[in-house]
Records
---
Amino acid sequence: MSADPTAGPHTTLVPRRPAPRIAVFCGARPGADPAYAELAEEFGTALGRRGVGLVYGAGGVGVMGAVAKAALAGGAPVTGVIPHELHERERAHKAPGEVFVVRTMHERKALMYRLASAFAVLPGGLGTLDELMEVATWNQLGMHHKPVVLLNNSGFFDPLLGFLDHVVREGFLTPAERALVHTARDPETALDLLAPQSREPAAV
Ligand code: AMP
């Protein structure tokens, strides 16, 4: 603990725990069913209600844009990270929240992972799957221990979860490693797993 020059002889400084920040991986498209954007809005609103920060890919479009707009409207701190090239291309869709512009996709991922204390995955495409697999692999290898939860309220991820079970059966993944990819049916359950310190106290 560093010395505080303003502290008196009987003052003890208690380091403040940083507020949790969750990186959300999800589609830059809205998907075929309006339920995906609705889920994203619900998740963003829940972040705001709990005072949990959002880290995202800084696109004002699709499922991504829906999470960010709802989180910002709900009062959550919102941080986007976007590579220069995408930022230039996307000026028309101004990203909500503060935005870091980085040089490459790899820098973007590295910064998002560093800023986040946990990861939520909502419906999306190849970019979403890439980000999920990378953080899950890092957990598997013990390179970080930040929880990963798939928000699977409509069964969107069922085929992927089935494939992971297949990978276990075929001997490429242990059941313990498979269990590192958590699932939740709704935003509140996901946030209880990802940021338990933000849970609202039970009513008495
Ligand atoms: P996807 O799941 O393929 O829609 O990709 C979502 C991820 O890809 C995001 O988290 C971003 O990393 C990136 N991405 C793809 N398109 C865009 C976009 N138009 N604006 C910002 N990021 C994007």
---
Amino acid sequence: MKDKRIKILKQAKPSEGNVAYWMNRDQRVNDNWALIHAQKLAIERKKPLYVFFNLVPEFLDAAIRQYKFMTEGLKSVEKDLKAKNIPFILSTGQPGKNIPELVQKYEVDYLVTDFNPLKIKKQWLKQVMDRTGISIIEVDAHNIVPCREASDKQETAARTIRPKIKKKLYDYLDDFPEITEHPHKPDKQEPAIDRAEVIKTLKVNTRVKPIDWLKPGEPEALRILKEFIEKRLNRYPNERNDPTKDVLSNLSAYLHFGQICSQRVVKEVIASNADEGAKDVFIEEIVVRKELSDNFCFYNENYDNTECFSGWAKDTLNKHKKDRREYLYSCEELESARTHDDLWNASQLQMVQIGKMHGYMRMYWAKKILEWTESPEQAMEFAIYLNDKYEIDGRDPNGYTGIAWSIGGIHDRAWQERPIFGKIRYMNYNGAKSKFDVDKYIKKYVNLPQ
Ligand code: FAD
Ligand code: FO1
């Protein structure tokens, strides 16, 4: 077990208490370094092991769509843990209050939690640390090369973090120990979770309907991974930027909710007999791009606003702030896909209807929001709001980074200067037309019943 995945956040004096894993980002039993470490600690101390999960009534702009996917996935987590003598304790409300209460109730002295670069988790962690006097340990169960280990600062671009990650990647592709049946019985028997009651605690938008084309949970994530490797991976290099082709992995929702980890995905991809070139192209995305996003959000708390843009980007966007906008749309007009651009409308409708916009279209979608709103500040606000409300994989470091890349040139370089965009990379309809059959894509979404 690489100790570099482990960060002692608070060291209390050793004592006779139990061990708990506060599950947040990595919502799975298998291949979960945080759970593996928590069980190791509990076995060493001959103590019961508990898993806490706190369900917040709202999370950024998540709707019932995302909560349904997540809570369905947690059902199989609870079942698998129960079979291993590890109680899964679900609390509802604010973690700053609930986790310290659970620590008290279950006499926990060691609290393990998984790494999460978003500022909301940093706030939660601070509240828990201020209200408990116990040891708190953070384990990076999401990145292959732990975020802090890959780099100790915000990286400029993929090309600067790539060598740092590649150098260590194979050190961190080790095998995952199994979670065994826990030998120390829990002190208390837990009443079954009343899920009807749990759902009532949510204060989320119920109009953004759950999706049915992706089944949540670890087993389904593994099935989709195997199918991707067998049927789509070899076509990925040439067709991944064509939204009319179905070659993407479709793993982002599972990765976002931690129902599968990228280390498992990469190990299976490397072990497969897919083309080596295809493996490299896919690994660039799921390792370099994905871990660059955690690096960006972890080291730059302004990942969700224009303050995070580099100096050159701020200057160029300010210089063009007063440029005439040929089109201006409100958030509602964008949300209901009522713009003059049928390609953009189709991408918005894809996101609203199926909860997952194609990766290539996300760049075009966000860049047009910069072009058709009053300011980069407003563009960031609208893009993040819509992305977090409708994308099944939203509210994720990849999303904040993807939007900051599109609107503020994060991890990108300066390009030919032009109105509104300044030197921020521009994308347009003709560019898309040269890459794929835009009419075919548009027909797929624009004619569907709203
Ligand atoms: P695949 O191409 O199969 O990729 C597999 C995995 O690699 C992805 O799940 C993701 O973890 C990682 N990956 C791929 N492309 C990128 C990338 N550009 N940056 C970081 N990681 C990447 N991704 C999200 O997970 N949530 C979001 O909310 C999100 N919003 C985005 C918004 C914009 C404006 C842009 C430009 C990109 C956004 N992305 C987001 C990144 C990327 O588009 C998605 O991760 C990808 O389309 C998810 O589908 P997939 O898993 O089938 O992709
Ligand atoms: N994490 C939690 O610990 N409790 C929640 O109730 C919760 C809700 C939630 C809803 C939508 C969503 O996209 C994420 C949610 N998360 C929740 C956080 C998630 O598990 C990740 O930690 C973050 O999104 C960072 O990737």
